[in-house]
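User: I'll paste a sequence; please echo it back and then give the predicted structure.

Assistant: Echoing your sequence first, then the prediction.
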Amino acid sequence: MSEDFGQMLDETFKTIHTGEIVEGTIIDVKPDEIILNIGYKSEGIITRNEYSNDSSVDLTTIVHVGDKMETKVLKLNDGDGQVLLTYKRLAQDRGNKRLEEAFENKEVLKGKVVRVLDGGLSVVVEDSRVFIPASLVSDTFEKDLSKYLDQEIEFVITEFNPRRRRIIGDRRVLVKAENEEKRKELFERINVGDVVEGVVKNITDFGCFVDLGGVDGLLHISEMSWGHIDSPKNLFKVGEEVKIIIKEINGSKIALSRKFDDENPWKGAAEKYSIGNVVTGKVARMTDFGAFIELEPGIDALLHVSQISKEHINKPSDVLKKGEEVTAKIVDFDEENKKISLSMKALQPDAPSEPEEKKEEAAEEPVADTAPEEAAPAAEETAAEAPAEEAVQEPPAEEAAEDTAKEE
């Protein structure tokens, strides 16, 4: 009788098979497992690992008693008499089906970036994972992909092979198409001289590239300021918003500038730095032929080596140092070519002349009474007397010998 009752009871439960999709009602929830009534003689259980890929998830915060769930049968007996179910794999199967349809229809999908890998991004779409290689993330190569973590991005499926676990996504093709549309729109509305806003995208030693909205413009180091810039990295940061001027448009290339006209230091410079004015500035840089003195940001003047001192100097670095403050006189101003020449030598005193006391002493010395005209005859008389003195000199030795012989 008991056997017949057991058989009748078993017949009231449905028959299930491995791989079958079943629906159940949650009758208990623990942090690491879910227990369901699936209308079978045994209860169904979903472990944390079969619910999510997140090993730290607390299931009590996600599902509740009384909720209905569709699951997939993994084992009819998990060893404890319960049916082992999976929610994760069922969701993946459905997600793969969704990805397959998108692949065939070339549909644009949107998914969340759950991991940043060495070679690209891992994106989840309806519990199925898609890998987007780094080369297909953007239209330009990005070494650091961390900014995409937890972001939702759009892409298309370019390869679908779930058996080999190769589901490849491509975001670059969408970025290129979007940027091309933005580029077209941008070139239709900008003109040389326009002041626009952009975002610093990349910084190099010679300048930085600014994203104007799908199009990058080059802000050269020489156009970053009216003053001297040692390095663009000292002035800008990637991601910084900047206001710039469209300086030139050459085909698809855009040259930018931050030299705003109202900040031009050369306005009014003719009066401020007119010839003869004495100015003070700092040594900005030096060459063998001279030193460039920064009078103010954007205005440098040349102090030629010959104008540094009245003494001979081989090169400016022998007497000047970078950053040293100097005072000089403006000796030339060329507004058209924006050139100013300085001279320190012009401010230096002349070499000391003969003292006034010595000049006064020389003036008081007595002057000879004999006039020049009287001095000449005296000289002639002296010359006339000279032969007479020679006549009384002793005779030559030969004549003396002859006289002695005669006497004998």
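The helical segments are 2-12, 88-105, 172-189, 269-272, 356-364, 372-391, 397-407. The chain has four domains: 2-86, 92-175, 191-263, 269-347.
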